[in-house]
Each structure stands twice: as structure tokens, then as C-alpha cells.
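We were asked to recover a plausible sequence for a given structure. The inputs and outputs are reproduced exactly as logged, with field labels preserved.

PROBLEM: sequence recovery
POSITIONS: 298
GIVEN STRUCTURE:
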């Protein structure tokens, strides 16, 4: 099915990017990897193009690779272009996420994009998840309306105190709302780094682990470019921008809700691309988590 994009949505997205340059918070849009990131492990599995504009992580039978931002942020707009592993990528996961710490700490907050590899000719799946104080289990899975291995596409996270929105090419695919009362599901207290990594997850990633990684196709490579962030950069003990976030476009009233045009795109995604939603899994959750009662349309 052909994906329909509202012209107004495109205009709003462009306007948001322009506004980012006028923000009083920290805005970074640098093509230099070294300006923004550190390699977490396996330096020899990281490469850059000759002009330094494209960065690549590779996975082989020995190891994968990962990087993280040098800075932490609490709230903002975070965006990167990715081109995923092509061909037979079953069992391979490219993760692009925000997290309060390096490693799966028991009290971590986390916002996940995970791209689940596939057998050649089968659709790539994108899984998202939200953790608060080490508790996740809030998975959603979507199909994409394009082949993410053919060219770069933009994956973004909007995070403010009212909602978290996962975007693909300016289209909102997931909305995670905060409540107007204290709760244990919405991560809004801890600053986060942004990470990406590639790793082998053939025990679960493709068809629940039935499809294993074919190492004859290694190395598996995911590529990145055009990192952009406009957010409240954390500085201990407490940055001034945390208490003045409403001065920034990403935490003004218009960013607390989907626009009418975004709602149309979101509805299209809900009708056509969602293949799993934990809020509808009554076998897994006989009593649905409390956040499932919050409307993404408000």
C-alpha cells in the first residue's frame, strides 16, 4: 500500500527543524562522529567514509560494535539517519536507543528503537520499548512502508514531560503519554545518553528465534549519518534548562500533543503497520498496565 504523507505534516516537521536552530537549549548537528560520540567496544568494527559523513558498525561471529553520545540529555528532540543491514539479516539487531546508563542496569530508564533483521525478501520489523526504573515489557512492533536497507531514513524521538513520540521519516509511529499524576511508567526524571549498536540476537529477534544468523553473510553492516539533537544537556548537579524547557519548541504546547495532520498519519500507521501492541496482549497482561488507559489522541 502506498504511504500517504500529509503536506502539512511535512511543513510542520521542517518548521520544527528550523526552530531547533533558534532554541535556547543545546542544539547540535554535526557530521563529525568524534564531536558527539564515543565507541563503546570493538573499535575495529567501526568505520567512517572517506569524507567522514557516514559511519558504519559491523557484526561478525566474533563481536558487534556500539557507540554512545558524550553528553546526557533530559528532554528534547533526537534524530539520526540509518541504513540497515541488507540481504539475509535474520538474527541481527540494530539498536538505536536512549538510556540512563551504559549497560542494562537494574534501575535504568530507556527508550528503544530495535530493528529486527529478516530473511531475504521478508519485511524488516521495528520494535520499540519504554523502560522506567528498570521495568520494560512495553513492546510494540511495526512493519515499515519501505525497504530500510536501500537508502537512509530518519528515525527520531521527541521526549518532553507530556509525551514520548517515536518518529520514522517525520511520521509518528508510537505515542507514549504521561499522566497528570505521579506514576511509575513515564521516564522523566533521569538524563539519558543516546546509543546505537549492532549485535547477534538470533535467540529471539527473527520469528521468535526460529531463524538463526547465517554467518556466511557476515560482516553485517548498519550505517549512520546526520545526527541531530536539540535538547536540555545535562550538567551536574542540575542544569538550568530543565526548569525552562517550555522556552524550546519541543516542550511548548504544540509538542505536548499530536497535530491534526500527525493524528492522520498516526491513524494510518495504526490501521496498517502495527503487528504487536502490549496494551492489547491480554494473555500476557490479564490486567493491562495503567498507562494503556491513556489516549495517544489527547
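RECOVERED SEQUENCE:
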Amino acid at each position: 500500500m502506498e504511504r500517504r504523507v500529509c503536506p502539512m505534516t511535512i511543513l510542520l516537521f521542517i518548521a520544527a527543524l528550523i526552530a531547533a536552530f533558534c532554541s535556547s537549549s543545546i542544539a547540535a548537528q554535526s557530521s563529525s562522529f568524534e564531536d558527539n560520540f564515543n565507541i563503546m567496544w570493538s573499535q575495529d568494527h567501526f568505520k567512517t567514509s572517506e569524507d567522514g559523513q557516514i559511519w558504519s558498525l559491523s557484526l561478525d561471529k566474533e563481536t558487534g560494535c556500539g557507540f554512545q553520545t558524550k553528553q546526557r540529555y533530559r528532554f528534547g528532540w533526537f534524530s539520526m539517519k540509518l541504513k540497515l543491514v541488507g540481504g539475509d539479516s535474520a538474527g541481527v539487531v540494530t539498536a538505536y536507543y536512549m538510556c540512563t546508563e551504559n549497560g542494562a542496569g537494574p534501575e535504568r530508564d530507556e527508550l528503544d528503537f530495535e530493528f529486527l533483521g529478516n530473511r531475504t525478501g521478508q519485511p524488516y520489523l521495528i520494535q520499540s520499548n519504554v523502560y522506567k526504573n528498570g521495568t520494560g515489557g512495553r513492546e510494540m512492533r511495526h512493519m515499515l512502508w519501505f525497504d530500510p536497507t536501500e537508502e537512509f531514513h530518519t528515525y527520531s524521538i521527541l521526549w518532553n514531560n507530556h509525551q514520548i513520540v517515536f518518529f520514522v521519516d517525520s511520521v509518528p509511529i508510537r505515542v507514549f503519554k504521561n499522566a497528570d499524576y505521579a506514576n511509575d511508567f513515564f521516564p522523566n526524571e533521569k538524563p539519558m545518553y543516546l546509543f546505537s549498536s549492532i549485535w547477534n540476537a538470533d535467540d529471539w529477534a527473527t520469528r521468535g528465534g526460529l531463524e538463526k544468523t547465517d554467518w556466511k553473510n557476515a560482516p553485517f553492516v548498519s550505517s549512520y549519518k546526520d545526527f541531530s539533537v536539540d535538547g536540555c544537556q545535562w550538567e551536574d548537579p542540575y542544569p538550568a534548562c530543565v526548569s525552562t524547557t517550555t522556552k524550546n519548541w519541543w516542550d511548548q504546547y504544540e509538542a505536548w500533543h499530536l497535530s491534526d495532520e500527525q493524528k492522520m498519519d498516526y491513524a494510518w500507521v495504526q490501521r496498517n503497520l502495527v503487528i504487536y501492541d502490549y496494551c492489547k496482549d491480554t494473555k500476557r497482561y490479564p490486567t493491562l498496565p495503567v498507562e494503556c488507559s491513556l489516549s495517544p489522541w489527547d
